[in-house]
Amino acid sequence: AVPVESARPAEPPAPGQHTALAASSWSTRGPPPGHRSPPPYSWFFVPLLHAAARSLHPDAIQQWEAHPFYGRLWADALANLQLAPAVPVATLATAVQTLQDVYAREGRQLSAFEAALPAVLAALVEGLPAGTLAHLNWVLPRVTDTNGYVPASAQEALLENYLGSGPATALTAALEESLRTSPESPLPAQVTPPSPRAVAGNAASPAPASPGDAQAPGTQSPAPPPARSAAGLQGRQLSAALATLDAVDATAVLRQPCPLFRSPPAFVKGPLRQALHFALTQLLNAASEPAGIDAQRAWKLWLLLPRMLLFRPSAAPRVPKPELRAPVANGRHGSMIQLRLPAFQPGGRSHALLAPPLAPADEATLQALQDPSRRPPQPYVPLDPDILAFSPDVPLALSREILISNLRRSRRGAAPGPSGYTAEILRPLLDDPAALEALHAVAELLARALLPTSAASALGLGRIVAVSKPAGGVRGIVVGDFLRAQHRTLLELLPTLPDLQVAWLLLLYCACPRAQYVLRILPPALTAAFAAEHDHRILSCLAQLLQVEASSDSPLPALVARR
């Protein structure tokens, strides 16, 4: 790691001179007068970063700590920053470059100093050993101008990486809350739930704390974009953006092929995690009315999110980083509500898919898959009405630990369903406890069928792959949505249900028929391995339900297993 360098604070000013110093140097700036200071929040973030790097004047630190409104918020954030571990310098360089690419697409003006930061950081990375880590007080002087100001892209990159995505978002939300809170009311240390939005302000130069504050030399103060501020869509703007989904038929959209990234590139995983958390938060906010318009919009947003953020043109072997970064970065705060609905363009890989053993994608294959004599459109035996009308005494509760375990160990490279979700896309949520809790809560909503009919219809879609049988004929393999395709989870949960009868019914009417169906449609080369794994899981579940002690070789005694 890079040795920690503690910058020496400026000499203490003479009594009564703090105000003049605050106007000329950000390293001596105290809190603004009053308590309502609008965004951008450079007036808070820049002194906070200086204090964490031990380069803020002691008098200014005392003023912040003693402030009746911001004191507690300042102290908590400062303590977390000072305890932050070192961060890879290359990660910081990539974060600053990514943010500036987003700013450029949004039409923001950058000062000459800020525009040069990516090159400065890239030069640092080249001159250091690979994987070098650096603490905040080593990095801050290298991204600070002569007036002590830290540009917006550097502010956001430092806060996201050293403070953490969740705490940084909560800090911004708390500052926004200060605009709606009276001075007599103490500012909460945290705002729950935090709004997923960007951290740093939308300015290449700081917003003055008072009319008399001097502006950093050589910087400009561009007007904010008319559509939204850097804090992201909120209030009416967010409602209007979500309302654009009303005209979208999610089921019809998911029926259309769309080339997507199955595994997101490493440089977009952080913003992607925040975008997923944003969509999950919208689902939970609308959970009280599963059939309401807000729930319909939230489920459409979740189902179509991969198409909005991870679209990959099939004719292009590579996607330029700025084109991929922009929608994902905007997705952190709700600005990504823009569908990608391109026509499917066959390329070399799609022609390769038509080679054996896959069947040709023609009308004859479709008719073979729809043959009613082999695949009846109706069940052989209707389900008992009592089973269809069954309602458990307590709502189904999914195990958080099992959900996390399944997400961690889900195999890589699995084909996605119509929504495009894969384990690799959802796996970044494991790095954010709050986002993981939201995923668990949404999974329980899905398990309890607390969702709009339109969303259930879209989730029920599957992508079929036609396989040619060695002896002739066609076999179809259906790939469903990732959230409903994990039958392993069901088998592991059945023995934990308090009602034994419910567990047996679920095993009889869900797990076994589903597995038998999969065994009928799998290619012969894959049947043996799947059958062995499936049989072991079924027998393990039966052993627990029957309270039979399992052996290492077989979960059930041989005689019982044969029966």
Automatic annotation (TrEMBL):
| Protein origin, superkingdom | Eukaryota
Region (Disordered) residue spans: 1-34, 175-233
State where composition is biased (Low complexity): 197-218
Write the protein's name: Uncharacterized protein
Task: State the organism of origin.
Answer: Symbiodinium pilosum (Dinoflagellate)
